[in-house]
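Table 4 source record.
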Amino acid sequence: MDQEERLAVFLDYENLALGARDHLAGMTFDFRPIADALAERGRVVVRRAYADWSYFDEDRRALTRSHVELIEIPQRMGASRKNAADIKMVVDAVEMAFERDYISTFVICTGDSDFTPLVHKLRELNKRVIGVGVEQSTSKLLPPACDEFLYYDRLEGVEVPAPRSRERSKRRTLEPVPEPAPVQQESEPAADKDTDDVDQLAVRVAQTVAGLQRTSSGQVNASTLKRTLLRKDPTFNEADYGFRAFGELLRHLAERKVLELAEGQAKGDPEVSLPEHGDREEAFALLRSTVAEFADGPVALSGLKNRLRKNQPGFSEKKLGYGSFLQFCRAAATAGVVELVWDSDADDYFLTTP
């Protein structure tokens, strides 16, 4: 138990309840999906929700069954209603951070950017911060400030009802509802979009592994990679790309030869690396053959990448861990595949085959 993360949960309940009602087709906010998601991250020892509960009479019964402590903030002053709950929540969180050292993670459930300074202060106090909010009502400033951010509407167990239009319901009484468009028309573009999303994810993962290898001893474990991806994008979740677990994502990328996996020191935490051979050598060979196609002399770097993609449409240097096409060409020159020379008159690099 001593190795477990201990979590304290603070809910800006009005923000969550109104966000769910206004942006999730009128659905009622349910705390249980949040509780389930947090149970996977550690042991929750504090659960507090702040609101004027006279406005949420039904909700407080469900929260009580989930063992959430309800903090009553009577609000009778119009514009000052919102601030009263916010200030009390901030004071309690900071006080707890100083008084209870055993709490390692604070979960701030809100989409309000006013809580961003609180997040920064908690992280200054060496506390991990997880944010939770309804996606469409969450400020763009809040997720990047957190160590991890969970969108409520993406959590397992949240069933968002289909939106209903008043105009459509009126027309149904006056005229027949038109036949829905065939699903097949949108299925192919949707599949293409999913493929593009996974390709972009593969690029991001490969770049992250390459960066970790440069700045560390060279050994990168899956757990370290996941933490780094969350630092780059606190909203990252492999489930958004159709993978049940991070390990499943890594195995998929290994099958595509984006990564290589090896047994790590800890069970279930494999070592992750970029392929040393195979794809990189094939990419170098593609570069060499493309440059050799130009018999007139040196080839300018600008425009060369498009020529490579004509020969191999799926080419991307970022999938190999290179931050730019120039970096990829420099690596090829270091390996002796091509020669790379800067021309100050043309203000460009030129490549030739050895």
